[in-house]
Each structure stands twice: as C-alpha cells, then as structure tokens.
Amino acid sequence: MEETHEKGAASVTGSKMRGPIVTVIYVVFIVAALIGGYYLSLALVPKPKVGIIRLETTVGGALAEVMSREIHYAINAPDIKSVALVINSPGGSASAGHDIYFQVRKLREEKPVVASMDLLAASAAYQIGVAANEIYAKPASIIGNVGVIMGQPAPETLSERFITSGPFKSTGGSATAFLRKLDLLHADFRDSVVAERSKAPNPLKLTPDQLATGEVWIGIEAKEYGLIDELGSKLDAIDRAAEMAGLTNYEVVDVRAEYLASLEGSSLFDSTMELYEEIEAESVEFDLATQEADWPSFYQIYIPLE
C-alpha cells in the first residue's frame, strides 16, 4: 500500500510540474513566432520611403526625359509614399517645362509632393514647382520670373538660289504674329500659376497683372504674396511630405539612384546613363554675382539719407 501511495504521489507531482513546463514552452514558442513574424514582415513589407527628385539644372529636353522616367518610377514604386521635389534652376525651355509640369501634376494625383526651392526657382522651374501640393523655400531663395522670352523671326530675304512655297516658310511668321504667340504663352504661364496658387494652403495674393511682370521675389516676399506656402529647409519639406503621407517611421531615398539600380543589367541602363551625362554637362553653378546676364540678380545701391 505504501508503494502504491508513493507512486500516486509521484504521479501527481509530475503532473503538477508538467503544467508550468508546458506553459513556458508555449510562451517561448509564441515569443519566437512573434519575433520571427516581425523580421519576416520587414523582409516582405519594405519600410516606407520619401523619395527625393531633383531639378538642379536648366530645363531642357534631356531633363524632361529623365524626370519623366523618375516620376513614373516614383508613381509605381509601392514603398515610395511621398516625394520631395528639390528645385535649383533658372528655368529654360517652355516646352520642356510644360512636360515636367504635367508629369508632376500626375505624380501629385497619386502621392503627396512637396517642392523645396533652394537658391533659385525661376521661370519654367517655378512653374514646375507650383504643380506640387505645397511649396517650401528659404528666406533668401529667388522665386518667380513669370514670363516668356522669344526671339524675333529673321527678316525675309530675296534669293536667286532658293524659292519658298509661302511668304513665311523661311521665317515662321511675321514679327506681329510672333508677338501674338508670345502673348499666348505668357498668358498660359501666368494662368497656370494663378490656378495652382489660388487653391494652395497659402493662396496667391497678387493680381494676375502683378504676377506676370517677370519680377523675382525673395522667399520672405514670396511667402507674403502667396507664391510659396512655408519658409523652411529641404529637411522641413521632406518632413512635410512624410506627414502628408501619414508616415512616422520612414527612409529618405534618392529616386534617381533607386531608378538606376532598377535598370541594372537591362538594355535601358546605358542609354539612361547617357542622358544623365548630358544633363551633367549642361549643369551650372549658380553664381548670381557673375551670371547676371543669364538670369535675374540684385544690386545693392547706397543712397544716403538727407
């Protein structure tokens, strides 16, 4: 009887010990599963990103082509949730500017876009910037220059070697006709800025006529007149782009670098690199003290008080 009692007691004791051991095993298993699931989720679900797209040269055909590709990549990249558009450019081709402007509008429809205007955002570069959801600039940034420059047609010349099928075949039109074309392009530029900035967080406070003089404003004035939304750094613009996308834990990436990495080994890589090299060859250092013939600048004049 004593032996049976001892076996029964041992059985009860073993049963009581197995309970906590099983509980510990279950807890360890659940913790391991949670940790494994966390790291697996990091591998399967990439960390959200704010992409940076740069416009840092004159606006031309090559820039329009590569920015179109970068914007298309940013739209279709599931991990890029918003974009900061960094601008430092005197403008350039109206046609190329229109191309990029419409591309940025398309990007804005898919993901938040915040423009950050650095030293200079003039003419076509400013028009591209107004396509963003919001615009940030520095107090000393130079902004605006809404207007168009167009050359006059060459005069028709008589020749005994060549004949033309019409009076304007060799010139494209009369001087008066070119002025009308200039007015149309000017009005289109002005009206696009008025339309975009009138519904901005800091709405435009200038009349269309005041806007269209070709004047430039520093960032402080641009904020006052509604040409931009906020004064701040590039980092402020990136933070705002993340906030608009609802991001708190994110990575900042260069869209150009990511786009090129996606082309590694493809037939498009070499041709794309040639475009970037062409843009690099066109890029300039913005020194307004020596380049006043190329874009607007400022002069300081001392006038003594009476």
Overview of the molecule:
The protein is α/β, with parallel strands linked by helices. The protein has one domain: 2-enoyl-CoA Hydratase, Chain A, domain 1, CATH 3.90.226.10. It is 50% helix and 14% strand. It has ten helices and eight strands. The chain has helices at residues 2-44, 61-76, 94-110, 124-129, 175-198, 208-211, 219-225, 234-244, 255-263, 268-282, and strands at 49-55, 80-89, 113-122, 134-137, 142-144, 216-218, 230-231, 251-254. Strands 1, 2, 3, 4, 5, 6, 7 and 8 form an eight-stranded mixed β-sheet that branches. Helix 2 (61-76) packs parallel to helix 3 and helix 2 packs across helix 10. The longest helix has 43 residues, at 2-44. The model has no long low-confidence stretch (mean pLDDT 84).
CATH architecture: Alpha-Beta Complex
Oligomer: single chain
CATH topology: 2-enoyl-CoA Hydratase, Chain A, domain 1
CATH superfamily: 2-enoyl-CoA Hydratase, Chain A, domain 1
Order of helices and strands: HEHEHEHEEHHEHEHEHH
Name the descriptors.
306 residues, alpha/beta, 2-enoyl-CoA Hydratase, Chain A, domain 1
Brief overview:
The chain is of the alpha/beta class. It has helices spanning 2-44, 61-76, 94-110, 124-129, 175-198, 208-211, 219-225, 234-244, 255-263, 268-282, and strands spanning 49-55, 80-89, 113-122, 134-137, 142-144, 216-218, 230-231, 251-254.
